[in-house]
User: Fold these one by one.
Assistant:
Number 1:
Amino acid sequence: MLELHRNFARRELVCGWLAATLFSGAPSTLYALATGSDPLEATRAAGAMLVHPASAPPILVAAAAAVHFTVSLFWTVVFGWALPRRGVVVWSVLGSAAVAVLDLRVIAPAFFPSLAALAFWPQFADHLMWGACFGLALQLCRSTP
């Protein structure tokens, strides 16, 4: 059976997942606030992955939270299996950059037009933030040296 957390303890992965999930939306939100754009645009787009885009705002926000939670958990499992313990922050950021291109240039245009319509660079920055938070948390929560 494939062990899903080959290089990291479950506690380390939970720590990384929580940090990445909680803080990864900061760059695009700050960008939206700084430019006078709608800071909930990305949230509504993520929610539209599960529910109709014209759904009530609380429904879209709840759906976005579920999407973000689940997608972040998926990548936590993938990264937990694939990343080396050495240089984990750098590898995590590089991996998240690759995921950003996959998400934003391949998957979103094919399946999620509301995500594909978002500005690329703020969303790319969110992915990099996810990788940085994930890698830093793994490093800080390390069980063994």
Number 2:
Amino acid sequence: MQQEMVKSGLKRERKIISVSTKRQLTIPQKYYDLLGFDNEAECVLQEDSLIIKPLQSTNTSEFSEQILADLISQGLEGAELLSAFKEHLKSIRPAVQKLIKETDEFAKSGKGRMSLDELFGEDE
């Protein structure tokens, strides 16, 4: 693995990876973890390069403040806070997808209307 210095002072690593016969790539685990990949990536064609980066969901940013406040109230700080925050962010998308699925199923059932409290749960 070759390392180079980039203008910003951060190290840049270069690694050769294989492309399967189905045109699939495997992101090295170190890069996957470091960049915070989940189950989707953004592919950008820029001149003669292909840039693959984690998909940054704008939906999760709406919850960031609430998540951080809750974790801080639990006494978390430093690396432990950061780790817990990342785990909580990963759980938002599956929760929203589950909510959409349940709502679709209810709509198809023809059972009538559902209140917001029934849909989202009652406030604490």
Number 3:
Amino acid sequence: MRENVLIVGGAGYIGSHMAEFLFHQGYTPLVLDDLSTGHRHAVLNAKFIEGSIADSALLDNIFSTQSIDAVMHFASFIQVGESVKVPEKYYQNNVANTLNLLAAMLQHKVNRFIFSSTAAVYGEPQYTPIDENHPIKPINPYGCSKSMIEQVLADLMYAHGFQYATLRYFNAAGADPSGKLAERHEPETHLIPLILQVAKGQREVITIYGQNYPTPDGTCIRDYIHVMDLCDAHLKALSLLQQGAKQAIYNLGTGQGYSVKQVIETAREITGCNIPIHYGARREGDPAILVADAQRAMQDLKWTPRYSDLKTIVQHAWHIIK
């Protein structure tokens, strides 16, 4: 029987890839998105409902009529800098609205939940690579909002037997290899699409924020994980819950870090474009190195990233943007 999976935020970058991936794996995806940051045309093979998880009446109608087996949550706001300037926006959407969704799930006895969390819950790394035992000490409202929901989920598990998986992404990147879907944020804040916009002539230069970090080339190092590998991990986490697991908490990354300069050089190689750079001041709260220890996910989920070498990530992103 095809399981029905509600994907909130399923018209956004990762959510749209997830909906398409689930469809091709034999699931029936249902997308709920208010289109505040998502795009209707990104929903390809799923029923689409325009609306918000803040709308209790809408959620009640969906859970009453659609026979939902599990929920995947991609409906958070994600810009760290904005969260510092407008924290109330992040607590309203990422916390209050998510609580509304969870309350509707409990009311309708839908007990499987996959939550897209973030490495931002760890704050400034005390050691690297970062494993799941690293202290949770977020340093911005975005990270705080995610860690709050992580705590709520643990409490729901103990109180109600609620089943959940929390997946802490490092740097999601890349695009659907077939070229049907892409990364698209407005405004764009992620490094790889910004670099490729320079290659395409859509912006003049790429800015490197800081060149004196304690790294081999002085620029920040990050762990990039291909969006399709993220989707695969989500499906494997759902399978774990289907088998009876109550709680699963995993880092999703590769354990391999690349500096900003390395990403730019790879993009130059893939695109054949010069990609001029400009140096700016360091951004507050940017750690020198953020790299995942994802061994737990790889072992428990039998998950192996297939697309997450840097060249493949950039090739797939460039294929859709050029």
Number 4:
Amino acid sequence: MKITMDEVRHVAMLARLKLDDARLEQLTRQMDDILRYMDKLGELDTTDVPPTTHALNLTGAMRNDEVRPSARREELLANAPASDGENFVVPKVI
């Protein structure tokens, strides 16, 4: 086995999880399956596979940063519940 029940019990204790023995056995088997599968993936030859940051080849996802006119302050503050003429006035939160 790649992982023991004692290791799963230790991780559960660190995560402050109360697990009975049946659940510990189940999680141990599931985690062991995952770790064995990871070993199988590690056997793959990926020398010719380029590193990727996304599964899809996205281009132009970001627009160019350009100056555009924005709304006037009076328009933005018009629907505010409270303002001092220049800023939104919000209740103090501590």
